[in-house]
Design brief:
By secondary structure, this protein is α+β, with helices and mostly antiparallel strands. The protein has 10 helices and 16 strands. It has helices spanning about 10-15, 20-25, 50-60, 80-85, 90, 140-145, 210-230, 260-275, 295-300, 325-340, and strands at about 5, 40, 65, 70, 100, 115-120, 130-135, 150-155, 155-165, 170-180, 185-190, 235-245, 245-255, 280-285, 305-310, 315-325. The strands form 4 sheets. An 8-stranded antiparallel sheet has the order 13-12-9-10-11-14-16-15, with helices on both faces. A 4-stranded antiparallel sheet has the order 5-8-6-7. The protein has a two-stranded parallel ribbon with strand order 1-4.
Length: about 350
């Protein structure tokens, strides 16, 4: 079996041709231990307690490798020109009205009183964003100096985030994402594993059918474009709802990620560990930053049936998986988890 490397620094390697600090990959790589029965390429030392924990949950003994011949697990890095194109936010902007792509601040066309959001088109998801208003354009200069180009769009009154993951065979699933006010990913919710469609989203019935009809037209156009461009692997289309003119509307495409995503990982974990439950959550919390935190958390949460600690206790995030027979029970388990861990552990509400 060919070893795998969880290259969570994929965008940095793809667009900047360099490696990120090891802690970025090490913050997520252990997730593959629960999903893959292949050696993991890593420099990180995992404690025996954690490895025994993985074995109890997965039924497989983790193995590791120092081989140079490995398969990238997060993003393939096999067809660099295509992957650069499809992962660039400039490509995503084709499907998003009102986006300006600029090389100089003088290119901007801004309205009075409107707040805008600037993005590095080649950065990691949820990073290098900046809010600004007219007459604050100079604040963009450091970001523009780094990326050479920026995407600028109106800042919307964002309410709920959701995504579709489109598999290589063309099938797709829908799920709700938890995102904090810094646009950082904090979790994924599946309310109905047996039918992970738009209709299963908590806010589906709060939005006019005409909005959803328009969304589906635009989503299908994105799928057709990805196929036309030569996409052969899976990808996500990230979307969100926002409040405008007295009602909820939908932004069909905030970005496209032609690689694995945390939403996909949540789905794969759900398929393997939901134990016939119908609702699951993958949750990211702040690291406890205390010695022995893995054992501390393991002891605290063992009373919560269907709650799994996934992280080893010495990485950037504490990551948990919850499975239950229905969403209300999953939500109750999340609240119990919050109560057992220190205040501030989770930065989002459900």
């Amino acid at each position: 079996m060919k070893p795998i490397k969880v290259n969570a620094d994929y965008e940095i390697t793809l667009f900047e041709n360099k490696s990120a600090p090891k802690l970025i990959n090490q913050s997520l790589e252990f997730l593959a231990l629960y999903l893959e029965n292949r050696p993991l390429v890593t420099d990180k030392h995992y404690t025996q307690n954690f490895l025994d924990h993985v074995t109890r949950i997965s039924g497989s003994v983790p193995s590791f490798s120092a081989e140079k011949d490995f398969e990238n697990w997060w993003g393939s890095l096999k067809n660099i020109p295509l992957e650069k194109k499809l992962n660039s936010k400039e490509f995503s902007a084709r499907f998003t009205p009102g986006v300006q792509i600029i090389s100089h601040v003088s290119d901007l066309q801004l309205g009075e009183g409107q707040t805008y959001l600037a993005k590095n088109p080649y950065g990691m998801s949820g990073q290098n964003f900046l809010k600004f208003i007219k007459n604050q354009e100079t604040e963009l200069l450091p970001l523009l100096k780094k990326s050479k180009r920026l995407l600028v769009e109106p800042f919307l009154d964002r309410k709920k985030d959701f995504s579709h993951y489109v598999f290589s065979d063309g099938t797709f699933i829908a799920y709700e994402n938890l995102v904090d006010h810094h646009f950082q990913y904090k979790g994924t919710i599946f309310r109905n594993l047996h039918a992970p469609s738009l209709e299963s989203l908590s806010f589906y019935h709060e939005i006019d059918k005409s909005e959803w009809d328009q969304f589906e037209t635009e989503f299908n156009s994105i799928r057709e474009a990805m196929k036309r461009e030569g996409a052969t692997g899976g990808y996500s289309v990230d979307s969100f709802t926002f409040f405008e003119e007295g009602k909820l509307k939908i932004r069909t495409c905030s970005e496209i990620n032609y690689r694995k995503t945390m939403g996909l990982v949540a789905w794969l974990l759900s398929k393997k560990y939901a134990n016939n439950g119908d609702s699951t959550m993958l949750l990211l919390g702040q690291s406890l930053k205390v010695s022995g935190s893995f054992e501390l958390i393991e002891e605290k949460i063992k009373k919560i049936e269907g709650c799994l600690q996934l992280s080893p206790g010495d990485t950037r995030f504490e990551i948990f998986f919850i499975a239950a027979s229905d969403f209300q029970k999953a939500k109750s388990k999340f609240q119990e988890l919050k109560n057992l861990l220190p205040d501030g552990q989770f930065s989002v509400e459900i």
